[in-house]
Specification:
With 313 residues, the protein is α+β, with helices and mostly antiparallel strands. The chain folds into 2 domains: 145 residues; 99 residues, no CATH class. The strands form 3 sheets. Strands 1, 2, 3, 4, 5, 6, 7, 8, 9, 10 and 11 form an 11-stranded antiparallel sheet that branches. A 3-stranded antiparallel sheet has the order 12-13-16. Strand 1 and strand 2 form a beta hairpin. The radius of gyration is 33 Å and the shape is elongated.
């Protein structure tokens, strides 16, 4: 016969109600954590898009400013459009070290014994470029002389810039230094002497273009050196930007041209009258960003005014 002790039985485990409550609480906490992570992901994605938009604007301004600032209205501006400009950009400079014959000259190398190199290139010139030589004063007028390049190659300093020129030392030749041989399509005039500065120009077109992915980019096309403009395939440089619009207040890339009096150039006016170029770049992301409850689209814009070198007085 069992004897009761009068003690209540200790219950183990949980009831179904308690289990449901715990699961509901876990679900609520998990949902809150998930929602927070999603919001943080959207914020960081939007912030990244904003930084990219600002970076794209800076890239366009810096790229275009560097080339346009080095142009000369007298001989390097070829196309003036609202979304494109075609110029002869400076890709290098040097001095005439030796006149080899009527159509060929020798140039010093890009390094020198004492570090004072007389030759510098952003990219090596080739047969698609132009060489511009500074002439001695002719009837009191200083001019530049243009020639198309037909050959450009590195050669020993002994053949391109010997010590007798005064621009190199025998030690540089003994060390195996190299200079450059430059051949031209037409003879140099007698007004181009040893020591004359030389600039190397490359014709190219910057423009806002619609790419196959549906976005708009700043692109570059290399064009033929002489004659009517004929350009190669476009290469993207930066972007994306807003699409093209005939409205100057909304287009992704805008070029505006001004004369020395500050007035806008007419579409049919000569490039020789140009004194300043204003560039406006506008980028806009496809990603929406929520900040303090407001939905915005990351975007940025900037405008820079560039004075043309050697513009008409």
């Amino acid at each position: 016969m069992a004897v009761s002790t009068g003690q209540p039985r200790v219950r183990t485990g949980v009831t179904l109600t308690e289990l449901v409550v715990v699961l509901v609480l876990i679900g609520l906490v998990g949902s809150m954590i998930g929602l927070t992570l999603v919001r943080q992901q959207r914020f960081y994605r939007g912030t990244t898009e904003l930084l990219q938009a600002r970076g794209g604007v800076r890239d366009a301004i810096e790229l275009l400013s560097a080339d346009i600032r080095g142009t000369s209205a007298a001989d390097t501006v070829r196309l003036l459009a609202d979304s494109a400009i075609e110029i002869f950009a400076n890709v290098g400079s040097s001095v005439v070290c030796e006149r080899i014959d009527g159509t060929a000259v020798g140039l010093p190398g890009v390094s020198a014994e004492r570090g004072n190199a007389l030759t510098a290139f952003l990219t090596l010139p080739d047969t698609g470029d132009i060489a511009v030589f500074h002439r001695d004063s002719v009837d009191g007028v200083t001019e530049w002389e243009r020639h198309r390049i037909v050959a450009f190659a590195a050669r020993t300093l002994a053949t391109t810039c010997p010590p007798s020129s005064g621009f190199t030392r025998q030690a540089e030749i003994d060390a195996g230094g190299t200079g450059f041989f430059l051949a031209l399509s037409t003879p140099l005039s007698a007004h181009v002497s040893v020591g004359a500065p030389v600039r190397f120009l490359r014709r190219g077109r910057y423009s806002l273009y619609h790419a196959s992915d549906g976005d708009w980019y700043l692109g570059y096309r290399r064009c033929n050196a002489v004659g009517a403009s004929s350009c190669g395939a476009v290469q993207p440089l930066s972007g994306p930007y807003r699409g093209y619009s005939s409205d100057p207040r909304g287009t992704g890339l805008l070029f505006e041209y001004f004369n020395k009096m500050g007035g806008k150039l007419a579409p049919d006016e000569s490039p020789l009258a140009i004194a300043r170029v204003d560039i406006t770049a506008r980028s806009e992301s496809k990603q929406r960003l929520t900040v303090e409850g407001r939905v915005t689209i990351p975007s940025d814009s900037a405008t820079v005014a560039i004075a043309i070198r050697n513009r008409s007085p």
